[in-house]
Each structure stands twice: as C-alpha cells, then as structure tokens.
Design goal:
The chain is an alpha+beta fold and 339 residues long. The chain is built from 10 helices and 17 strands. Helix 1 packs antiparallel against helix 7, helix 5 packs across helix 10 and helix 7 packs across helix 8. It binds zinc ion.
Length: 339
C-alpha cells in the first residue's frame, strides 16, 4: 500500500462516512416498477449468449446449458434483472435438453405470451420484471401441475440456499474484488448486517478454477468476496463505501505487494440498482478527488462465483498469527478502526 494513499484514505474517511450516511435505501428502490432498458444498455450488461436469448429470443443448443444437470438446492433468477423465477424443488429431469420446471416461484414472476414462430403455436415465457425471453411452457409436464417450463440456462442465474438471495428473509448479495481476498473478507465480516462473507473467484472464464490456476493468471478470474447481507441493516451503498476504504482502487492489477490481474479492483453487480450505485460512488469519489490517481475499478455484471478452497475461508480468524496477516491484514483493519 502506498504511503500517500494511506494518508489520503485516512483524510477521506470522514467524507466517505458522510456520504454513507446519506446513502440511499436500497430496499425502497427495489419496490415496484419493471426494468426498462435500451438495447445498448442490455448489450453492455449481458454476455452475448444472454443477450441472444433474453433479448432476441434465441434458444441455446439442447444438452449444453449450464443448469441442465444442475441439482443444487436454491433459487433460479432472471439473468437480466435478478427476478426470482423458479425454485430447485420444482426442477425435474425432462429429457428435453433444457432445464425444466413444473411451476414458477410465483404465478406473476413470469408472463405467458402466444408464440407463432417456426410454424408452431407455443406459449412463450417471459420474465415479468424485465420482459426477457426465458423459454416456453408445454402441457406435458409431471404432477402436480402437468406443465413443463422449458427454460434456457442462459436466461438464468442461480443462488444456492446457503449463499442465496431470498426476498422473504431480506437478503441480498454483493461481490467485490479488492486484492487478496483474505484481507477483504476479514474487513467485511465485522460489519453489522453482513451475514456471511465467502472468499472465491469471479470475473473470469475458467470453470471451477483452483487457487493455483487463478494465481497463474490464465483464468481471467479475480480474487473476490461474496457478501450475503441484510439490506434492511446495511445498504449496498455502505458496503461500497467500505470496499473503497479497504483497498486502493487506483493501482491496475495490483494491491500493494500483490501484483497480478487476480488482484484487480472489481465490482460485480447483481442487478441494475447495484450497477448504478457502483457507478455513482466511483463518480463521487472521483469528483471529490478522494484518491490522487484515477480510479481503475472494473464494474461488470456478476456471472458466476466459484467458492475458494476451504483453507482460504476465514483465513484471518484461523491464521491471525501468520506473518501475512500480521503485516498486511491487521494494519489495514486498524486503519479502518475495526480492531
Ligand atoms: Zn428479468
């Protein structure tokens, strides 16, 4: 960590706290209203495959989708807007080559429209919040509904029960990369309203990467933490403020002595509101010249989180006598007034 950054960071803490106190309430912004975006905005947010399916009504090749044989307990979300669509209990093996469900999570979480394309009359299924194309529904499903919601994996995201989002229990996810995840995890774990912080990898392309692969810089992934939090207690905005207090967002692919693209500063937003708030905070920090150098933090749509190996979790608490934690992590936490 650069000395001048530390000085600037200390001076700026007061200013950031003022901003945090005025932070908007995430919960109230989520209520009501459908998600409306331009094609250009969708293109920027979605992967090319997601865009083809959700916005251009394409169908992924049968037998290829990420969630076809996926059996983890949890909730399937719209990849466009994060709307909760299906729960794992209603998923079944239909043999059709796409993920199949017997019912949506709630009646009004999807919309049905008649689709007369390809010389057939089918019922197309759309996300009720953003209008994204999901797939079709057929009358050949099993009990209890007799319906088969045949859905493209590419239109879906997934939250496991363990680290998942549930509107009822007022939980949300945030994913940040700010250098070594041991340090970032330790900082976030001390905040009220933060229920769980898991270290892992995201933002790259390799499936199920190992720590060694990520360190070899060939996966594109960054070391990140995924934070499960209660938005009624702590807002996403406050997490963003904490994030920018905990690391140096001005050093490309580097945090202090840790050098490499896996240490890049990155915010992986889970919905449009998070994207907006991240961009707003970066603009405010830049306008107020909180950092001497330009903020290089990458703001990108969350795709998939790979939990890091067990020995990385709670590294600070389990290894607080290790030299790395003494030298790097403790000073950082002290700086933040948490220890
Ligand atoms: Zn949607």
């Amino acid at each position: 960590m650069k000395k001048r950054f530390m000085v600037i960071a200390l001076v700026s803490i007061g200013a950031i706290w003022m901003m945090a106190r005025e932070g908007r309430n995430v919960e109230s912004k989520r209520e009501g209203g459908s998600v409306m975006k331009t094609d250009a905005e969708w293109k920027e947010q979605l992967s090319p495959e997601q865009y083809r399916i959700l916005r251009e009504k394409a169908t992924e090749h049968p037998g290829t989708g990420e969630y076809l044989n996926h059996q983890t307990e949890g909730t399937y979300l719209c990849a466009g807007c994060g709307n909760a669509l299906f729960v794992s209990e209603t998923k079944y093996e239909s043999g059709c080559g796409w993920p199949a469900f017997t019912a949506p999570i709630e009646k009004n979480s999807v919309e049905e429209v008649e689709d007369r394309s390809h010389g057939m009359v089918r019922k197309e299924i759309l996300c009720s919040k953003c209008g994204g194309h999901l797939g079709h529904v057929f009358n050949d499903g099993p009990e209890p509904t007799g319906l088969r919601y045949c859905i493209n994996s590419g239109a879906l995201g997934f939250e496991s029960v363990k680290s998942g989002v549930s509107k009822e229990s007022r939980e949300a996810l945030a994913t940040f990369g700010g250098g070594c995840f041991w340090c970032v995890e330790a900082g976030f774990e001390m905040l009220d309203g933060v229920k769980e912080v898991v270290s892992g990898y995201a933002g790259g392309s390799t499936k199920n990467p190992t720590y060694e692969q990520v360190c070899s810089k060939t996966t594109g992934h960054a070391e990140v933490v995924q934070i499960r939090f209660d938005p009624a207690v702590i807002s996403y905005r406050k997490l963003l403020d904490m994030f920018f207090r905990m690391h140096d967002p001005t050093t490309p692919n580097r945090q202090g002595a840790d050098v490499g693209s896996q240490y890049r500063s990155i915010i992986l937003y889970h919905d449009a509101e998070q994207k907006q708030e991240a961009e707003d905070v970066i603009k405010e920090l830049a306008d107020e010249k909180v950092f001497e150098d330009q903020i290089v933090t990458e703001v990108t749509a969350f795709q998939k989180f790979y939990e890091a190996e067990k020995y990385h979790q709670n590294y600070f608490r389990q290894n607080s006598k290790q030299p790395y934690c003494q030298m790097v992590i403790k000073p950082k936490l002290k700086k933040l007034g948490l220890r």
